[in-house]
Amino acid sequence: MSTVNSAAIARVAHSSATTEAPWVRYTLVALALAFLAAFLLLPLVSVFTEALRNGLGTYIEALTDADALAAIKLTLIASAIAVPANLVFGVAAAWAITKFEFRGKTFLTTLIDLPFSVSPVVAGLVYVLMFGASGWARPLLDTTNMQIIFAVPGIVLANIFVTFPFVARELIPLMQEQGTDDEQAALSLGANGWQTFWHVTLPNVRWALLYGVLLCNARAMGEFGAVSVVSGHIRGKTNTVPLHVEILYNEYNFAAAFAVASLLAGLALLTLGLKSLLETRYGSELARSQKH
Amino acid sequence: MSISTFLARGLFQSDAARTTTRSPIPGFPLALGFTLFWLGLIVLLPLAGVFFKTATLGPAEIWHIASSERVLAALRLSFGTALLAALLNAVFGLLVAWVFVRYEFPGKRLFDAAIDLPFALPTAVAGIALTALYAPNGWIGSLLEPLGLKVAYTPLGIVVALTFIGLPFVVRTVEPVLRDVEREFEEAAAALGATRAQTIVRVILPSILPSLLTGFALAFARGVGEYGSVIFIAGNIPFVSEIAPLLIVIRLEEFNYAAATTVAALMLVVSFAMLLAINALQAWSNRHRSRHPAAATKENLR
Fold first, then answer.
1. Out of A16, A125, A246, whose CB is closest to B264?
2. How many beta-carbon contacts under 8 Å exist across A and B?
3. What angle do CA B74, B80, B84 make, to 5 degrees?
4. A82: number of Cβ within 10 Å
5. In this structure, which of A117, A144, B219, B286 has its CB flanked by the most CB atoms within 10 Å?
6. What are the backbone dihedrals phi and psi of residue A12, each rounded to the nearest 5 degrees, phi first?
């Protein structure tokens, strides 16, 4: 009797007081989708329509231009260095933070996140102050005669800075949840440290690792502010794809600017597609507290 | 014990090592040593250089630069527009998170993936796309023009760009917390005679408030330093639509390192303060979540 009653009450409560009237629901959904369409989808659509405004010929011409190809090559090189660097760092940081207890751990985690809250322009500026014409670390370089600012190494450094936390922050929450039981089992069965890492820890976190690398790569290839400060904008030499977009745009060569921009938009779409594929397929193997 | 092991243990002593004499898992000195080395080399040392350089200027010159009209106008604009955009995002981000957690509708998965677009789309691309849309002859700009509303090349354009950039921060922070809100609490409130509006304001809102504030702070912090998406749509007129990061770039191009560095140091101080505030908010949010006995049980069962 009492169960029937409470079930009936629950049903009534559910229908009338724990959800909204249909017209409210439809209005809220319509409002939210209109907002998303205006703010997210329209800009994306406009990139491709503007790119193709003057026809396919102009589009292909803009992409096969020598300066555009040089920019694409530089972008690929810079992220091919920055992403692995942060991958190694992310794994090491996650290993230290999640497998051991030590004082200052929370503080260290905060410091790793620091580059996310620094303006990209400041991220570029710090390296100009360090390695620029009168930079404070300049004496270290004088013996090697190495050019960092207005050259490729500066662009790589700026990319490493802005993508610094990506891999670490994907791995840390997941490895925290997984604890150290698997590693302890492997060690007690006679595996050494590296074997445990390669055969136990790494397979456990592979999808989260890929997820972090994916986001890290998207940011590295698309970074604008930090790279803009250190690059010097030398056409064909220190121009990355985003900087090439800016140059074309400032020359009022809009169709070409949007054509090159559409490459980056395509990269963003690919990243989002792979990201949601990872989330649906391997959601349980990613950290529960997913933030991106 | 080797010397490097000894040093690493001394600086960041492992509690496990202290209690069990030897940690069962190897690699602590190597992993922590490399982490600290790389963090110091890439992030901490270069950032410290900004403060070092600013300190060599002396208080009089720092004050002279920081209190100049143009710097103050740029900082006011950056903070003002970031605040406005974060507020807009708090409202619409909450709406979007609510709709995605509570309702079903066609195209939900597509829209869900689209929410992360601002994270994935390079800022320069977002900047020129938004400018094309909101320029007087653009798809949205041409609709607003007859109403006397100019968006592109005005401070309003900056707010639009920062709203685009900040949206996912609010949605992705509020969403998981809203999903965790126990329906039982709402049913209890309803059974005790609360109207739906009362239930939302008194039961649901308080439990998601910390996460909403965290998302707001994240969006705000990102907006203050944003550069790529803003410079195309802003118009960049000194005293009117010139943001602080752009002023740093302009001073750098004039080789006026003192002015560039001082503005950067001011912005860094604010970044650090924001980071601490966000950490405190997140800690509050986590405490808040685990205080609910039901939520805590669920957490333990997972």
1. A125
2. 320
3. 145
4. 26
5. B219
6. -60, -50
Q: A184 vs B25: CB contact, 8 Å cut-off?
A: yes
User: SS3 for A102?
Assistant: strand
Neighbouring CB atoms inside 10 A of B12's CB total: 20
Q: State pTM to two decimals.
A: 0.88
The model's pLDDT over B193-234, given as tens digits with 9 standing for 90+, comes to 888 888 888 888 888 999 999 999 999 999 999 999 999 999
Question: Number of C-alpha atoms within 13 angstroms, CB side, residue B6?
Answer: 3
Residues A201-242: tens digit of each pLDDT: 999 999 999 999 999 999 999 999 999 999 988 888 889 999
B25, B125, B196 member nearest A17 (Cβ): B196
Cα separation of the two ends of chain A: 48
Helix (H, G, I), strand (E, B) or coil at B178: helix
Give the residue from B130, A244, B244, A249 showing the smallest Cα distance to B236: B244
User: Measured between alpha carbons, how far is B129 from B180 in angstroms, rounded to an integer?
Assistant: 36
CA atoms within 13 A on the CB side of B163: 23
Asked whether A157 and A127 are in contact (CB, 8 A), the reply is: yes
What's the pLDDT score for residue B120? 93
